[in-house]
Amino acid sequence: MFGGTSVGGNLLVCRGAGNVTFTAGQAFNAADIYYIQTWNAGELSISFNDGSERTQIRQHGPQCIKKITIISDSPQQAVVVEGCSEPAYILGIDCYDLRRPHLKVWNMGWAGSTTETWTRTDTPWSSLNALRYFAPDFAILDLGINDWCKDVNPEAYKQNLVKISEVLLEKGDVILKSPLPTKADFVSLSTQEKFVRKMREVADELKLPLVDIWSNWENYERMVDLGFYRDPKHATALGYSDVAEIVATAFRTF
């Protein structure tokens, strides 16, 4: 994938005569399209599903993240992105209704990402630079499972957490959340505990709130019997609902 990953995962690549349709969960009348400008990119066309507000974007130029906003006079259901012979790169699309208050709640994680991938700065859209660009008002930092599954050094994990947290703290607030326990014969509990201990150290040193799901759940074996896991690392909908309740309860005390 060109340029590796950014916040949210791989860049969406549009090329050729086909198009990509982004369908929102409800009607909207405005959309922010975040895209990549770089020297080997081409052009793309952005429009609503009814063909209105068609806008051409030339992406060829110095490397950076850019945003364009399109607005409709009538309710829309989707945004259509059309590429050209050269690739066009989409970082994200956010649809909303201008008639209502708009709160952006984004999941910026992706499968397999570690704290190391979140500290990369080789391009303007590399994760750490992208976090500076988006500058969220508030972030929940939940990294660790992929680090202990990939044998990342716990001290390197700690230093990476510090780097990510400090960037987020430049413009907003941060809460740390420890990962879910992983099945012990997949990654030993002693290894997992080393990483959770490092997260606690970061919370203490940076004076950040910590929601310790790992300690709350105790271990994989206890929670799998409650139907909270679908595999050795990932929870079921029931499990994630319990996590959400724990996090929400913690928010009320911070």
**Which strands sit side by side, in order, in the main sheet?**
3-8-4-7-5-6
Query: Which fold name corresponds to the CATH topology of the largest domain?
Result: Rossmann fold
The structural class is alpha+beta
- For the record, the CATH class of the largest domain is Alpha Beta
Which series of helices and strands comes N to C?
Answer: EEEEEEEEHEHHEHEHHH
CATH architecture title of the largest domain: 3-Layer(aba) Sandwich
Please state roughly what percent of the residues sit in beta strands, choosing from under 5%, 5-15%, 15-25%, 25-35%, 35-45% or over 45%: 25-35%
Task: Write a concise synopsis of the structure shown.
By secondary structure, this protein is α+β, with helices and mostly antiparallel strands.
